[in-house]
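Handoff note, outgoing to incoming analyst
You'll be picking up this chain. Sequence as last confirmed:
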Amino acid sequence: MSTSTSERATAGARPPRAFVRRVVAAGLPTGPVSVDAVTEADLDGLPPAAVRYLRAMGVVGRPRTWSLRAHFAGRFRRGPDQAWMPCDAWQYNSAVEVARLYRIRLVMGRVVPMWGWDTYRGGSGRMRGKVLDLVTVADGSGPEFDIGELTTWLDDALLLAPGMLLGTRTTWEAAGDDGFRVSLADAGHTVGAEVFLDADGRPRDVRTEDRWADLPGGLTRAPWSTPVQGWTVVDGLPRMTGGAAVWHLPDGEFRYGEMTLVDLRLDVPPGR
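Most recent structure output, in case you need it:
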């Protein structure tokens, strides 16, 4: 997939200045609450599939992850009948205070740039999009976005940094031999997802019904999934190579995003 943008899409690339400024301005926590390592005792009482997942993802023996910064490149489309657009995305997630700042750059018609921001902070979610960073073409907030953005934070943690999930906010439930359900509570909201594992105990798909699709008739609650492209090992830890974002609508699946994970940094202070 092409990423014909002016922002570099290579491992080790610097985050865009606008992204760094926004993350710094958010005033998020700059360090962990605790540096104690996760032990086998911390997994007591969890469903067997969840324990297998946490072990496979290298959580045991390491401190809980308190933040992540990720860089993705790929393609995105706004509708089933619309063309794919190259895209480049950066995000910063905090677990000390549940927060997510996600910036995506799209190129429409391979010429016109569009920037989008998805954010979750203090229980409030928002989605904004601007063409040429001047003309607002999307601006969404309200209960649906609060729940949807928190659900996306949960999906990120499940796929990128499961050490973020070991705490009092999270509830785990059994769902067969190769999966489990997980719920996350924050700021009066509770969201959930079901995780399906591969033979090695790593996620092959995450599915939820706690998001709303922006359809011609308005916001519609619909099943949403993030199938994983594959896995590799970086610095001794499993890392997804990429994946997709899919709406499961009454008239069929709408695969609207395909992304490669370019870079992932854990436990990074905001703005670093």
